[in-house]
Fold each of these.
Amino acid sequence: MPALEYGKDRELLQSFLQNFTEDDGKAKYMEILQDIANREQAVLAIDLGDLHQEGQTDLLEKIGSNALRYVRLIAEAADRLMPAATRTDLPEDVFDVLQRQRQRALEMRQQEAEQAGQTAQNDRQQNLPSELTRRYQVTIIPCSMDDSKQQHMRMRAVSALHVGHLVTIKGIVTHVTDVKPLIKVATYLDEESGVEVYQEVTGREFQPLEPNKLPEQLAQQHAGRKPRLALQARGSKFQRFQEVRIQELSCEVPQGTTPRSVSVQLRGELTRRVKPGDAVTLTGVFLPEPYTGYRAIKAGLITSTFIEAMNITHDKQSYTATSLTKEQIAEAHAIRAGNEPYERLAASLAPEIFGHADVKKALLLLMVGGVSRQLPDGMRLRGDIHVCLMGDPGVAKSQLIKHVAHISPRAVYTTGKGSSGVGLTAAVTKDPNTSEMVLEGGALVLADKGICCIDEFDKMEDSDRTAIHEVMEQQTVSIAKAGITTTLNTRTTLLAAANPAWGRYDKRRSPAENINLPPALLSRFDLMWLILDKVEAESDRNLADHVMRVHAEGVVPNTSGNHELLTPDQIRAYIGYVKTLDPYIPESLTGFIASNYAAKRAMDKTAEHSYTTARTLLSILRLAQALARLAFREVVDQGDVIEALRLMECSKLSLHEEGEERQTQDVMSAIYSKIRDALLRTPDNSGLSWAEIRQYTSSFEVAQVRETLETYDRLQVWSLDRTDPSAPCINPLGEAEKQGPLEQPQQLAVGA
């Protein structure tokens, strides 16, 4: 394009910056330039949507196909329009000091020339390069950056045709280098004459000025003598530089191929914006980069490619970094005020999967998590809830954990057989650019403050699985490799799925033989859920009907009764809001929790399936805190503890051998057994409220529970309080009933 055309485009850009106004009448870009002049802002972000709004379609196409040149034109137009600073209290930086010294040196040379009777000549080199005086960075925002349906290219679609073009891609950040200074303008000082010489650097490498390439005026002053130039680092201009690698999304990788990656260069204010594991949308200029050194000899005319970033946004953030809108907060309160939000949220998790109501509740609590505590002595108590799903093939374990990975803002999905110890924790690699040894985080490090989902957990090698022990409890990874000794944060929730030792659960063997995981690892899971594929005619018929409806209608049937299913965005917003709450355990619950923990420990003497340790007590607290968060409460109540204990019991119920006792027990006897056990655990036999009764008998229908309560009330086993007919409760036991344990009446025993 002729220089004249670039001049016209610069005038158009200058007019656009000067005259563009928003709907409220404010001059958008002139206000930004004023902030830059006042040193309150360092980025001039040009939204291409504003150019499209002004009807500058030709200019848009030129920027898209020749982005770097037009970034320079925008900077030149902004330099012309730069207003004077309106603040008088601007802090003085190094550049201001150097400018004052340069001006003083120029005045002294002019005085010396006048005293010598010579005419002072204007030194062309004293006209500072615009890059040296510019205090801002120009970036470009694509038209649809604020649109949820933003158009982006697949990483595999970026080819040689797009060299020099503006491209937008999505990917996962896998590697991040340290931020280092990159020289933009090199300043040299002639030690004899005191004249400064400037050299603009456009790439990552530059060759210092040679004597035969000096400016004509400086060469004449030395009259054939070799000048002595010294590089002045203080007078040069440097820019922050960082290089990252972005890997294409797993959903964009064709089956049977390896994912591709691209190198991205971040400069200035765009540095330190991402870390490994972030899912980002990147807009930048696709550029070639010739090989250097020995690689250039082997490569010949082949060049590598990279993207110079212009704009970068996060697609999925951690809950703590997610800013909720007022509408999302209001919607979360509406869900909480609705009917049974706990059951509604759980039913909305993977609704296409039939059943597993309690498993989904456990996964919901996993995403919510408990409260992490930092003790005064430095010890950290984790709040993350670890869950392991073990069961027969075909019970939807993988689908459940994939759905959790989809909903969570920050999650990493991997498989046990495809992951090594360093692949999960961290590996030491050599940086190809600087030849330095750098750490690359593994799956657990990438999922920091998120969820790491590991499928086929039982297929992992024992040596690789050992690396997870420190991560699960201390939430750190200690590295001592290649001279690098450090500790990385892995504040990660672990969700694992595994099969029993022989593929399917063998009821002839003990639970310990079937689970086949070391006790040290097993005790670190807050919930170890065993899902068996049991043959039950009614359940199998309902499952088949559910699957057929999903395939026939293409929609998920609502199996949660009157609850309207929530979308993943609604669940994500609700969890993001409740994670801002920090509920605590009141002192009044200390005795209740301690007595239940002691009872669970006492059961270990006779039950082979139990593995209650001191970690189980902390698991109860974490689950109760997660339940309190879901209810928008700052204090954990007894109902939360009861539900946490119920979930822990449900997770172990499937570990029991399905003997004749459970097969011959009718519904009413099962409900009675649960209520009797609950009454015996209450302090001072204080009775049970309707809410507590439903928490213990949530797996049964309301009508069945009411019938059981009325039946045993007529038999005078307990006394009902019918003040509220819709919510009957059990009165405190009388003195006669306290003399011995509640026994099931003989006339209701099965087979009597």
Amino acid sequence: MRAALLLAAFALLSFTVQAEPDAAARAQELEQLRSQIQTLQQQLANNRKKKSRAEQQLQKVEKQIGRSARELRRIDRELRAQRSQLADLRATEKAQVLKLQRQRENLAREARAAYAMGRQQQVKLLLNQERPSAIGRMLVYFGYFSQARAERISAIHSMMDALHETETAIQQQTARLTELRSSQQLVVQQLEEKQQARKQVLASISRELQSQGGELQQLRSDAQQLQALLASLQELLADIPANSGQQQPFGSLKGKLGWPTRGRLTTRFGSRRGSSGLTWQGVIISAPEGGKVHAVAQGRVAFADWLRGFGLLLIIDHGDGYMSLYGHNQALYKEVGEWVDTDEVVATLGASGGQSRSGLYFELRHKGRPVNPLRWCTGKPAALS
């Protein structure tokens, strides 16, 4: 999380501030912002010290899973690109072979015709011409034929060289694909090992909660921690100008947003969280691990890190006090300070944060207060259960 906050500091401090007549006033504002970020960083550092050893292990292993999932996605993307290039090379090779074959056939026909005519036939043709001008033309024609054969032979040599280069490129591409597949298998194996380690950590946390009777206390603590984080981010982002390229304010999109992922809604906004007495401030969309998570609208990433109770969490600031939250992800694909577009893939579905089932925790907030996603998103990802 320290790395994410440092990225946030650099990203926020690098925003384009609206022109102020007084340069000294701008410098003072930036210094205040820097101080606020340092304070928030210190608060989060203090909170980290209070974590149990099992929670620290959970955070570590889930962030490792996220990195492995990102690497696997990168390898898969590169594999697709390499396969496409290999297909193009093989198509080029096929066209070159056909062209070379036609050139060889043409040259063979010319060679047979030249052999049939022979040198003596050429002499007879010249002697049979009655006019000197006709003899000259015949000599020129013979020269053209010889030059054409020489050029065709040269073209065949060039084609053979090009074909050899293509074959070499295909061999290199095939070797690269083999290497990538090996890397892919290694990352998958590492991912499976980390998933197994995660199960052991979750069992340890479950034993801790049962022995301490602390499940309700942890739920409340998680909710308070998120509320404090959002309040701090809201304060830090208050003076940051909105993206000038944004087409329409987020508030005008009520009832028009798409859902961030496809799946089954398994919690209702405002419903009770078991017997805890707490209520859901967002919704959970249950779906298989590894599915795509999309940004519901354009905005800037304000937070991208692991947070207890929410796992790998992404928060997007949409301006005018609106934020969208995406929790329990397997991997995050955006960094703090990056702009994202509507429907852009920002993460993959997971079960981070100690969840037993994969799914996306999705919240919408306005000025720190949760709002019902069902009133903002059009339709439903699937029927409520």
Amino acid sequence: MARQIDGIRRMLLIINKIYATNGQYGDSCVSVHELLSYINDHVDAPISERTLQRDINDIEMLFHIEISFDRATNSYRINERFSSREDRLSEMLLNFELLNAVDESPNMRSYILPEHHRAVFSKYMPQLIYAVRNQHTISFQYVLYRHGGEVITKENILPHYIKESNQLWYVLAYDADGYQLKAYGIDRIRNLVVHDTLFERNVDIDVNGMYRDCYGIWNDESLPVEEVILQYDNRDGYFLKAMPLHHTQRVLVDDGKVFKISVHVKITNDFVMALLSRSRSLEVIAPMHLRKRMMDVYREALVRNSVPNDMFNNNNVESNK
């Protein structure tokens, strides 16, 4: 186990060094000598160039990040189409830096308090990873949460990716017709069967592009990308500047009283739920159909949470002081 942990640590060191180094042409690259020196300065047992190359091969297999060697400059670089995964990579590297700090100084545990996420476990995860990696078809029963727990059977599914969204895991897969990549919540899968039948993986899928205009896991191809204009007060504005609603967020007004932004997204249920989670001062300026959708949600909530008219009369208010 210790050897495996050391290997993972070296792999993250490699990614961290290459990703953080700007080469002569502005891309992420680093010489072999510099990379080896960096790694050996951060590990207990020095490694050879052969071990370095083996770690780089493992990085592509485990993290799906392709690192190529440039013989002309004797350097390694992260290929352009993989370096575009900046958000996810940055998150992973930040977690690595924090873990390193805690590991190197036990006292850091007194200062760094990570968020305690709800454990999301699925006994099917190892089987799904195996099926994705080795291109095996799968079948399972699937629980439809939005339809009262109805259970349907899915046969001859072609799993391509495992994706996380909002602390839940999904398998992205094609049905047997291979027409559209769909997301299946792993927490809703029952009676999974991994078949011996193999399929040919579609390597031309731009998964990042699929979700670029979405919020969360929903990606309805029939929905257009729309400009959404939202207005908040100054207090909510601080939070939205610290944690933008979407990567397309653009500030239109920030005058100390009003904070107005625009985002370009598909208006899915996930996006509406995100708006509701910070809606204390929210006003939907555009589009109008989203404004009406939010109004309908508020109206229904008002009915559900209504109280008797006399609950807050003067006598009750006085008695509760």
Amino acid sequence: MKKIVILGIGASMFFLGSCVESSQKYKSLQARLDSLSTVHIMQNSEMESMLADLNDISAGMQSLRDAERLLTLETINENKANSKSKQQLNQLKKDVQAITEAIASYKEQISKLEGKNKSQSAEFKRLIAGLNAELDQRTQKLNEITKQLAEKNQQLAVKTEEVANLTENVEALDKANKSQQMTINEQDMAIHQGHYLIGNRKELKEAEVISRQGIFCPPIVSSQAQKANFTDLDIREMKVIPLNSKKAKLLSVHPADSYTLETGEDGNMTLKINDENNFWKQTKYLVVMIG
């Protein structure tokens, strides 16, 4: 009898359960539960994506801090050294531009995150506000650096112009010095330049270097002698003149004690100037007749 009652109750419970599961209300509740579960999964996925984006932005912000710190140090060093070239300043400008573009990119990412998450928690809002505030600080700092670079660029332009003017002045002075030195050299050469001509009687006569005042008079240096083809010399340097002849006579006027005519082992004579100042005192044109 008890078994029959138990079986009857079990059958009733199974029947009631089947009725509940097949009822419209149950199906509606189940659908709502499934929908909530799906929304929860999507929210978790969006939250994970949002956290990943925030991590990327945070990592990028650290890179920005490091880059800006280096840029600030370079700018400070530039101010101390005050010797940055135009190329270095242009590189600093490029660095500033790169950081500025990175800040704009991060601001755009943060704006997208705010748009995706309409129902933001207080913690999320605080985090976003902190990131935006730091980006604003970075932007302000970059503006200051940009202003400093603009000032340095202007200073460099002024210095470049000054250097160009100085270079032009130096070149003009150098040109004037060279011209002056050339004049000095020419004057020095003129003062210390002598001329000599060696030849036999016939050669000297044909060159109109010598002339006779009478049949029995010795030859003398002609007034037209300077037109002849003399060899130039520096009287300070030329102390010995080989004559390549066994006989030689000076026709030009020179003090006897200022020179000697020496005969070498081969019999040829050599003119040795002992006192160049005295030797060339009366004339700078030396005429030697040989043979």
